[in-house]
Amino acid sequence: MYIFGKFKDENGSFKECLINDVEGMLGLYEAAHLRVHGEDILDEALAFTTTHLKSLVEHLEYPLAIKVNKALYRPIRKGLERLEARSYILIYQDEASHSKGWWKDLDFFSKLPFFRDRAVETYLWIVVACLEPQYSYALIIQAKLLAITTVIDDMYDDVALRLNWNFLHKQLRDNGSIDRLHKYTRSCYQAILNVYKEIEEKENTERFFCIHYAKEAGC
Question: CA–CA separation, 139 vs 131, rounded Å?
Answer without folding.
Answer: 8
